[in-house]
Structure formats: C-alpha cells, structure tokens
Specification:
Length: 489
Amino acid sequence: MFFQVLLFSCMLLIITLFIKKKNYWKIRGVVQETGIIWRYVFGDRSLSEYSKEIYDKYKEDQIGMYFGYTPALMVKNLEDIQAVLAVDFQSFYKRGIVLNEKDKLGDNILSIDNYPRWKILRHKMTPVFKNIRLKTMFYSIDICAQNLVDLIEKDTQVREKPYNIIYTYTAASIGAAVFGIDTTSKSTIDSPFVKMAWDAFEPSFSTNIKFLLNNMLPSLFNILPIKLFGDHEEFFIGAVKNVLKKRRNSKKRNDFIDVCLELQKNGLMKDPTTGYELEPTDELLAAQAFFFFIAGTETTANGIHFTLLELAANQTILTKLHEDIDEVFKDGKTELTYEDLDNLPYLDMVMNEALRKYPPIGQNQRFCTKNTELPSNKLKIEKGTVIIIPIYSIHRDEKLFPNPDLFDPERFAPDRIKHMEKFSYMAFGRGNRVCIGMRFARIQIKACLVRLLRRYTFAEHSYKPDRFERSTFSIRDSNARYEFIPREL
C-alpha cells in the first residue's frame, strides 16, 4: 500500500512540475538549476555534495531551484545568510520540516515550526546547558570516555570499525548525561540507547523516501500517517516516564531530568509576552530528551571520527596535540576536570578545523513565512520559498578559507579567528536557531579526544575520500579507518 501511494505521489509530482511554470527564477533574474533532489535520492553521495557541485558551478550569489512544486533558493552571500538566520529571523524562523500531528518524538525543539511553541520550549530548555549543569553532566561524559578507551584496549576487534565504537560512545554518553549512569551495568557503553540511536539515524531507503515526500510533497506527507521516529516512541517515551517517576522523590542532580521535574512542578509553561501556554507532559519532555539524540549522536560521532582521521593524516599536528594533552596529566595526574578542557586551546583549534572541513550538518534550510527581500541585491522572496544554506560548500569556499582542503588548525588561532568573516563558519549553525546543545557537544568531543589521545596515537595514513555516504543533512564516512597504537607513557 505504501509503495502504491508513493508511485501515485511521484506521478502527481511529475504532472505538477510539467504544468508548473519553469521560469519562476529566470523572470526574477536568478540562474536556475533543476533536479537536485532526484540526483540525491537516486545518487551515491550526500546531498551536501550535490549542493556543492551547484555552488561551484555558478559564480552568482543566488541559485534558484525547486523542491517539488516549492521554489527554493541557495544563498551564497554571507550578508544574505546573516539576514535569513538572524537579522530577518521573523521572516525565516521555520525550518520547513513537515511533521504529522501525532509524531510525538518528532515534536521537539530542533524541528518545531510553530513559533510560539518553539520559543517557549527553547527558553525553558536553555537552562539545561548552563555551566553548573554542564559540569554535572561532564562527570557522566568523562566516565563514558574512559569506558570507551578501556573497551578499545580489551577488545581489539572494535578497532576494525572505529566509527562504530565512536558512535557507541556518543549515544551512551548522551544517555548517561540525560538519564544518569546505570549503576547495575559494568560499563556505560552497554547502554540501551545505543541500539535505538543506530536504528533511528542510520541512513536508509526508507529515510530517503520520507525526505523526498517531506520536501517535494509536504501536503501529502502531512496527510499520510508517517512518523519520522514512530518506531521508537514506545521505548523512548517509556524510558523517560520511568526515569521521571524514579527521580521525583530523589536528591537533585542538576541535570536534564531535574529541569524536566521543575517544569512539571511549576505547571503550565507560559510566555509572558504572548500569553501562549503549554503543558509540560511526559510526552513533550520525552521529545526534548529525544532531541539530545537527534542533535548529538551522529553529528558528534562524525566530528570525533573526522578529527581522528585528520590527525592520523597530519602527524605533526598529532604530536603537538599529544604534548598539550600530556601536560594536563603531568605529575601522575589521572583525573580530567571540566576546567582542564578550557586549558587546551590547541585542542579547540584542531576540533574547529575538523568541523570546518566536515561540518556536522552539511546544509541547512529555512522556510519563508512572509514576503521579504534579501539585502545583497534586494531580491524579492515570496512567502513559501525554501532558502538553502550550503554550509559544507561555504566551509570549502577558497575565497573564505584559502586552500580549503588543507587541514590547518592555525586558521582558528585567537589572532586569526577574530578576523574571520561573520557567518562564514557555521559548524553548529548560527543565528536565533543556533544549536542549543553546542556547548554540550564540544565537551563531549573534547573529553573523548583527550581520553583517546592520552592512551593512543595513530599510524600515519592519508585521508582523501572520493565521496561521502548518501545522507540528507550530515557529512558521513563510517567506513574510513585509522589504526590505534598504544602509547608508551
């Protein structure tokens, strides 16, 4: 039945496109490209790479295209990008991701397009990432990082597929930070959330079909009973309900669950400026917890994975980083503190450069909610237009980052980073919908790198991928390898 509906949808799409005017962007003086979504769905690489081909093909700052029957515009000019993400936010606050009303887990901060609902949830969830709670969650993250290193040492087979074990760490550490450490388990890596994360975020034909329908036939997507994460509702919502029940009469821990309990204790959430009210139900809070996994599991794993690949390929940089990390553990020190991470500026430079070359989210999009115009050339943007922010392409633009394929952490040296053009670096997004968990993700990446690089170095190995895996938003290469070599300390 599903494939019959899909076939009918595709036929409807073809007819619609045939009838629809083909010169929407041309009459506005904008160059036009066609077929990007089809190239991706039936192609062999990431959507961000197809976008980069278009980005590089035209010298113009704006490139018109279609997402189904919806006009879309790729913007390259940084002033336009700043307007879309920040200055003219009221015209572009939507991501344009269609959700079924019954999609309980899809209904989270990351994807919500209802502005009053997004605003109040963003405000209420922001305290999760305040310094005092990040310090608390760091303890769980560091335990997971140590368990990861121990597993690599004990089980040499996991080294054959390094991405898998890094992914396991990111899923387990988020689970530990959100729900606490399971004291009955021998290792935090043995987390029940790891399998769920793999199943939920592994690229698949089904995921690509959902993306195709969501972007090209949003009205039909909304009518059909499609849930982005429907298979995981029972498990995840049940886990949140169970933890909330156990923690209601226990000692405060200054973590995510405490924020949830405080919200429920205070009753209806209300925005004083708009009067909008929202009840903090278990299901709503479960969706916010699920947001951690959506935003952090794969993206953070990719960040760590690509950093290690580049360190293996750049031994001088690897040696320098080893020296800095060893300084943290001098005089027999074994403990890693939250403050230690702030005293590793070269680690920050290395991490930032890896996230430049391989941004966690390769491209972003915004949906125009009212007629407006772009500042660079006063181009009129009609309500309903999708704006594409090609992050991967911008990060590899030689006009912004000379010799962009070179891995050079010095780009992010303090005296150089302050001269970087605004909105040229968007590893965690920018503007009003910048990643709310950015600081958490950085701690997660840095703790893992410190623990791994303290115990291991890597055999020299060049990394020059022909293409990345077919993924809608991320830059991914899960089959790439590096060889762990124990260090003599």
